Amino acid sequence: MTVELVRVDDAFHFEASGLSGVPQHLDAATDIGGHNAGARPMEMLLMGLAGCSAIDVILILQKQKQTIDDFKLSVDGFREKGATPAPFQQIHITYRLTGELNPDRVKRAIDLSMDKYCSATAQLRPSATITYSFEINGQAHS
Known about the structure:
With 142 residues, this protein is of the alpha+beta class. 31% of the residues lie in helices and 34% in strands. The strands form 2 sheets. It has a 4-stranded mixed sheet, with helices on one face. The chain has a 3-stranded antiparallel sheet with strand order 1-2-3, with no helix packed on it. It starts with a strand and ends with a strand.
């Protein structure tokens, strides 16, 4: 796998692209000279985790003939304060699904993603504790 990063301005705005060819923008915070023209690199790590797990969960639920009307998730990452580098120590993912879904099947799909299929989870897990919760049609499950 190869990605290319190209500097867009004279500060910290970059355009990255990979195999898909779809450009992604990265930038730094304004307090260090960035222009807020893209996601921060550490945000991109959490976005990658979110996308990786979301794809797994949807594929698994589709194979189980579950009906997904909507799928959202949010990821909260907590980094080591005052450290350089400052890796993620804790990450919590909240899955929000709507549709005709069996809670046991949703939990199993998430567990399979977290423990077996998601490469992003495997990459982040050595330094971070990763937990999750999920909601189906607005109702929390555990």
